[in-house]
Specification:
Helices cover 18% and strands 21% of the residues. The chain is an alpha/beta fold.
Length: 583
């Protein structure tokens, strides 16, 4: 565009679209690991908190952060940017006020005999530290302290179609801005997650050169953004991640492990591929990054099945990675995985300093217990700094008031259904039910899979959790048969692996209660049905001579309405702190 103001307005609009899509692409997971206090809400000064357990805490001070300070302290002019502007954390006023906050933090910590582990000044005025019970109480009594909050362990939260969103095709958003190749041009997406896999073609870029845009100067990567601001990034190296893994696409990569602890992560020897570096050992961070800003027309395949190409919502956007979530040593559980508040705040603070335009936060901890936490406050600072913050709602639905990331200044995005790959399970009595599948042969001319149909409980190891097709729960009587397994407790793909282990040839996975139906890559051809069909399938499979036939596509008269809020997606209203917020 020739009109600079028009370009800025367009950029802001597309930044919002990118952020919403980024938040929508993921959905919050499970539970918060037990923090230092029984309750995860912060203890405020004067709020009557008298008892603390020893542990790591976030100590928030009363002075405004750099992003929210509007003046009033002699010698320190206001640093909060004007509406519509973005904070430049490298200006003299910002640096001076940041130093002032650091000094105050040190005074407060020294008075209580506390050693600061991590200091935050930009999005939030706070520090992280290991505290004894007495130190926590003493800090809370200090007039300069606003809140003392236990360090939580939150979890990554994890559906997409650019056509469904109205991005591609005639009259789509991409066409209006000159094509997909221009979508997100000049915008930097900051992703707080599990890291990134730089070799994925969705993130392919050219090597960084000294005089290009982005460019390098020593260890610093500089990118002149479309709004006139400048992003300053660093490519931290570590396990299986070198400076060459950053590019004209990935212009920043950092990792934070102080809170989670290097001794608490898994590695190759434990069966968990985790890396002390920005490299993604889980895959979730790469998923969220590619959904929001993956390159145009990236080839996609799953298990050797060609799914054509995929494109991120804003493929021209640059990506800055802040790895704040880690995998624990036990690959069979999720309870030892997570994202420490200490590390989350470090990532948010750095993203503000670096100058990202959007933060994608696909992380959660169950239904919100408060609209104010240390991370909420930091996101207020980020929003005040001119950054669009998009967060996932959670996957604790469909019950009411299960939503996380409740604060009004966070754009919280639910999980929604879109048209997906389907297959039809036709029973021997003529009943036919369609569900999600990518493992039933998708060639319409392929020979349909047909076989005897039995409930898993009919081929069960005595005393085993066979209804759910738990590991080692089925006998070899399942060989050559299609097995009905109920969803729940165990990983969905672990159920088909158990069917395959005993020689089963297919699986009908059926929900017990309303929920999502998922296109997982299973060990045997699988059709995933919702709970509507549960009783009919189980009853028929219990009859003598029952059979089932799998065919690709939906050959029934019923197609689920789209879009709709996914069954597992968390809902409002937010009731925390006596509120009644619709999100």
């Amino acid at each position: 565009m020739s009109n600079p103001r028009g370009r800025t307005m367009l950029r802001r609009s597309f930044t919002s679209i990118l952020a919403l899509a980024a938040g929508a692409s993921v959905v919050a997971t499970g539970l918060i690991a037990a923090p230092a206090m029984a309750a995860t809400t912060p203890a405020f000064a004067g709020g009557g908190q008298t008892s603390f357990e020893p542990g790591r805490y976030i100590v928030t001070l009363v002075d405004d952060s750099v992003a929210t300070y509007d003046g009033g302290i002699p010698g320190y002019p206001g640093t909060q940017p004007d509406e519509g502007d973005q904070l430049n954390a490298r200006t003299a006023p910002s640096l001076d006020y940041s130093d002032y906050l650091t000094d105050k933090q040190n005074e407060v910590a020294d008075a209580a005999g506390v050693a600061i582990d991590v200091s935050y000044t930009l999005a939030l005025n706070a520090f992280s530290a290991e505290l004894s019970s007495a130190q926590a109480s003493q800090l809370l009594a200090n007039k300069d302290v606003l809140a003392v909050t236990p360090d939580e362990l939150k979890h990554i939260t994890a559906v997409p179609s650019t056509s469904f969103l109205g991005l591609d095709g005639p009259g789509g958003v991409w066409e209006s801005i000159g094509g997909a190749e221009q979508a997100g041009d000049g915008v930097v997406l900051g992703v707080l997650d599990t890291g990134i896999s730089p070799e994925n073609p969705a993130f392919a870029g050219d090597p960084l050169a000294g005089s290009s845009n982005p460019s390098t100067d020593g260890d610093t990567i500089t990118f002149e953004k479309s709004d006139g601001g400048v992003f300053h990034g660093v490519c931290e190296t570590g396990e299986q991640f070198t400076a060459d893994d950053c590019s004209t696409k990935i212009i920043g990569a950092r990792y934070y492990l102080d809170g989670f602890g290097a001794g608490n992560i898994g590695d190759a020897s434990t069966g968990t591929g985790e890396f002390v570096s920005p490299r993604d050992g889980d895959g979730h961070g790469s998923h969220t990054s590619s959904t929001a800003a993956g390159n145009v027309a990236t080839p996609a395949s799953v298990g050797g099945i060609d799914f054509g190409t995929i494109t991120g919502v804003a493929p021209a956007a640059k990506i800055a990675v802040y790895k704040v979530c880690w995998s624990g040593p036990d690959p069979t559980v999720l309870t030892d995985d997570g994202c420490s508040t200490t590390d989350l705040l470090s990532g948010i603070n750095q993203a503000v300093e670096d100058g990202v335009d959007v933060i994608n936060y696909s992380i959660g901890g169950g239904a919100a217990q408060t609209t104010y936490s240390a991370t909420d406050d930091a996101f207020l600072g980020a929003a005040s700094a001119g950054i669009f913050v998009a967060a996932s709602a959670g996957n604790d639905g469909p019950g009411a008031s299960t939503l996380d990331n409740a604060s009004p200044w966070i754009t919280t995005v639910a999980a929604a259904t879109i048209p997906s790959y389907e297959a039809t399970a036709t029973l021997g009595d003529g009943q036919a039910f369609a569900g999600a599948s990518i493992t039933v042969n998708m060639d319409p001319d392929a020979e349909p899979l047909t076989g005897p149909l039995v409930n898993s409980t009919a081929v069960a190891v005595e005393g085993a959790d066979a209804a759910l097709c738990a590991p080692d729960s089925l006998t070899e009587e399942a060989a050559g048969k299609i097995i009905v397994c109920e969803r729940g407790v165990y990983d969905r793909v672990a159920k088909s692996a158990e069917v395959a282990r005993v020689g089963g040839i297919g699986m009908i996975l059926v929900n017990v209660t309303p929920g999502s139906i998922d296109t997982d890559f299973h060990s045997v051809p699988t059709v995933h049905l919702d709970s509507t069909y549960h009783d009919a399938v189980v009853a028929y499979a219990a009859t003598e001579g029952a059979t089932a036939t799998f065919t690709t596509g939906n050959s029934t008269s019923y197609s689920p309405p789209n879009p709709q809020v996914a069954g597992f997606s968390s809902r409002g209203p937010v009731l925390a702190d006596g509120s009644d917020l619709l999100k």
